[in-house]
Design goal:
Pfam families: GFO_IDH_MocA (PF01408), GFO_IDH_MocA_C3 (PF22725). The chain is α/β, with parallel strands linked by helices. The protein contains 10 helices and 14 strands.
C-alpha cells in the first residue's frame, strides 16, 4: 500500500536544472488553483541549481541529489537528468520513499526498469515514466472516438516525426543515451500501443541512418499487429517534418496535430477541428507544447491522492512493453549502449 499523503498540496523536488525541467516548472505555474509547490531543485552542478532556484523562486537548492532525496518536505520528484542517469537517480529517490515522475525513457535497459518498478511497489510509492502524451485531453477524446467506433476498425496509423537535431549532443552521442528512437520514436510506439492495445507481432525497420558514433539519427519502421493492422513511421533528427499522425479506419480518419503533445484533433467527416489551447506562461518554453506538462503533473497529483503506485493512463506494464519494443527495434538496427 502506498505511503499516506498528509497534505493536498504536492511539494515537488526537481532533479536536474535543465531545459525540460525548466519547462516543467513553468508549466506547473499555469495550473489554476494549483495544489503544486516547487520546494527544491538539485543538480550535479550546484551553481546551476542555485541559478535555477533564483530564476524560479524555489526556496531550496542542492549540489547533487543525495540532499534532495533526504529532504523530508519533498513529496515527489520530477527527474529530468540525461538518459543514462535516470536509473541511478530514480533508484536513490525511491529508496528514500519519494514518489517519482521520470522523463522518458525511464531507463536504457529493460531489466533496470523492471527493478525500479519492483522497488516502487516494495516501497509503496508512486512511479511514472513521463509519457505525457497520455495525459493530454486530446488522448481522452481519441479514446472516446475509438471506443464509439467513430472511424470503424482501425487498420493503419501513419506517423511522420522529425526535427533537426544533428547539433543536439544528448541526441547524437551514444554515451549520453542518444537515439532518435528513444527521443521521438518512443512516442510513435506509444500511439500504436494506445490505438491497437497489443504489442506488434513483427517489427520491420528500414532506411536507418547512423551517425559516426553509431547513434540512430533517422529510421523508418513498420509495426505489424496482425489482421492487416499496421503502424508506419518515419522518425528523423535530420529535418523538420509535419509531425502529425493519421489514424485510418474503415469508416474515416483522425488526424492528430503534434501527435505526441496533441492540442488539435481533426476528423475526416467534415466536422470542425477539436482544439485544447494551452495557457500563456511566465517564461517561453523550450519544446513544442511543453505547457502540456501541466496535464502530466495533475495526473501525478490525482494518483497520489488516490494512493496509487501507478497511473492507469500509462501503467508500469505498458511502460515495460514499450521498452521491450524499443530494445528490439534498436537491436534490429545495431544501436547499443555501454551500460
Amino acid at each position: 500500500m502506498m505511503q499516506s499523503q498528509t497534505s493536498d498540496t504536492l511539494n515537488w523536488g526537481i532533479a536536474a536544472a535543465g531545459r525540460i525541467t525548466q519547462d516543467f516548472v513553468t508549466a506547473l505555474a499555469t495550473i489554476e488553483n494549483s495544489h503544486h509547490t516547487v520546494l527544491a531543485v538539485a543538480d550535479v552542478d550546484g551553481a546551476r541549481a542555485q541559478e535555477f532556484a533564483q530564476r524560479n523562486q524555489i526556496p531550496r537548492h542542492y549540489d547533487g541529489f543525495d540532499m534532495l532525496a533526504l529532504d523530508r518536505d519533498v513529496n515527489v520528484v520530477y527527474v529530468g537528468t540525461l538518459n543514462p542517469f535516470h536509473y541511478a537517480v530514480v533508484h536513490l529517490l525511491l529508496s528514500r520513499g519519494k514518489h517519482v515522475l521520470c522523463e522518458t525513457p525511464i531507463c536504457l535497459r529493460y531489466d533496470q526498469a523492471m527493478e525500479l518498478y519492483s522497488l516502487a511497489e516494495q516501497r509503496g510509492v508512486f512511479l511514472m515514466e513521463g509519457m505525457w502524451s497520455r495525459c493530454f485531453p486530446s488522448y481522452d477524446r481519441l479514446h472516446e472516438l475509438l471506443l464509439s467506433d467513430a472511424i470503424g476498425e482501425v487498420n493503419l496509423v501513419k506517423i511522420q516525426h522529425g526535427f533537426r537535431l544533428t547539433n543536439v549532443e544528448r541526441v547524437c552521442t551514444r554515451a549520453l543515451g542518444g537515439s532518435v528512437i528513444l527521443d521521438m520514436g518512443i512516442y510513435a510506439l506509444q500511439l500504436g500501443q494506445f490505438v491497437f492495445g497489443t504489442p506488434p507481432l513483427k517489427i520491420i525497420p528500414s532506411g536507418t541512418q547512423l551517425n559516426g558514433d553509431r547513434v540512430d539519427m533517422q529510421t523508418e519502421f513498420i509495426l505489424d499487429y496482425g489482421d492487416n493492422r499496421r503502424l508506419v513511421a518515419l522518425i528523423t533528427g535530420l529535418e523538420h517534418l509535419e509531425n502529425d499522425a493519421v489514424i485510418v479506419g474503415t469508416k474515416g480518419e483522425i488526424k492528430l496535430s503534434n501527435y505526441w503533445c496533441c492540442t488539435q484533433l481533426i476528423r475526416s467527416n467534415g466536422s470542425s477541428p477539436e482544439t485544447w489551447p494551452l495557457p500563456k506562461a511566465k517564461f517561453d518554453f523550450h519544446y513544442t507544447n511543453s505547457c502540456g506538462l501541466r496535464y502530466e503533473a495533475e495526473e501525478v497529483r490525482k494518483c497520489i491522492e488516490k494512493r496509487l503506485i501507478e497511473t492507469p493512463k500509462f501503467t508500469h506494464a505498458a511502460s515495460l512493453e514499450l521498452i521491450a519494443i524499443s530494445e528490439k527495434l534498436r537491436r534490429h538496427i545495431g544501436v547499443t549502449f555501454d551500460i
